[in-house]
Amino acid sequence: MTEDIVLYYFDARGKAELIRLIFAYLDIKYKDKRFGEHGDAFVEFKNFKKEKEIPFNQVPILEIGNLIFAQSQAIVRYLSKKYNICGNNDLNEFYADMIFCGVQDIHYKFNNTNLFKQNETTFLNEELPKWSGYFENLLKKNNTNYFVGDNLTYADLAVFNLYDDIETKYPNSLKNFPLLKAHNEFISNLPNIKNYITNRKESVY
């Protein structure tokens, strides 16, 4: 019997989007519960916290059967391990996690710029080209369509999600990084990912 899978988050991409991309790529059916989709997000979230005991009182929350999973990065790692997209040996698993950690660093800087209007000039002129160069070099070194080995890992989806976010706000951010641009186009054209992106809701973040 297949267990019900429910993802709880606000009506936005945010910290839940990489989880959604993983489900899309793997063609895993789940319920995407979004606070604010049909009413006041904070009222719905407050009521949700009364109904379920959740760690840390924040989302995203993933519910599988009677199990509750919290913290977006931990959820991503769990799903990647469970569904074998974390790297096909210990070394590749480390490299995938290393790249994922790097994505968190630059995504944090982007969110500070995008959501809180902090240091936009520094981000665009220094941080974004610096980190894009790091990812470009990693792709060049691996010399495949992927960041790690010759199969897709969650690192590929994480980098794609990062630049999907960034290019929504700053188009053509990848114009000076041909390998990274080609990688993002490659991931966006994977059938399940393409279908998901084509049909997903518009979101401000």
From TrEMBL:
GO biological process, one term: glutathione metabolic process
Coiled-coil regions listed in the entry: none
Classification via InterPro entries: Glutathione-S-Trfase_C-like, Glutathione-S-Trfase_C_sf, Glutathione_S-Trfase, Glutathione_S-Trfase_N, GST_C, GST_superfamily, Thioredoxin-like_sf
Keyword presence, Phosphoprotein: no
Keyword set, alphabetical order: Transferase
Gene Ontology MF: a single term: glutathione transferase activity
A UniProt-annotated Pfam family: GST_C_3
CDD domains in alphabetical order: GST_C_Sigma_like (cd03192), GST_N_Sigma_like (cd03039)
Top EC category: transferase
Keyword Transferase (UniProt): yes
EC number annotated for this UniProt entry: 2.5.1.18
Domain GST C-terminal: 89-205
Signal peptide: none
Domain GST N-terminal: 3-87
Name of the protein this chain belongs to: Glutathione S-transferase, putative
